[in-house]
Amino acid sequence: VSKAGVRMQMDYNGSVINSFVLDDISRLTYTIKERFENREGELEYIDKEIDTGLFAYRVGGRYGLMDLNCHRLTEPLYKSITAVEKNMFRATLIDHYSEVILNAKGDVMK
User: For residue 94, which of 55, 45, 60 has the smallest C-alpha distance?
Assistant: First the structure.
């Protein structure tokens, strides 16, 4: 069943078995360029993936932000969520065009 954007699993008697059912979950990471000097003394850059410690969860085609303890920081309101930095996330709205910036608490930044 689904109620207010949250999916639940219920038995035939109407008792809730699982109160929060997800379709998908993905770890949110971002990439930085790390500079190093090779054996010839030349500067090179490699991509280094940094973990934010947060996750994007999907419920029926919409994404929300969740922490390591499975606490929902946002409702599943977004078409996608990507990490920009450790505490900054880009969330695309359902219109596929508009975006907002979220902090690590799930608050929309102004």
Answer: 60
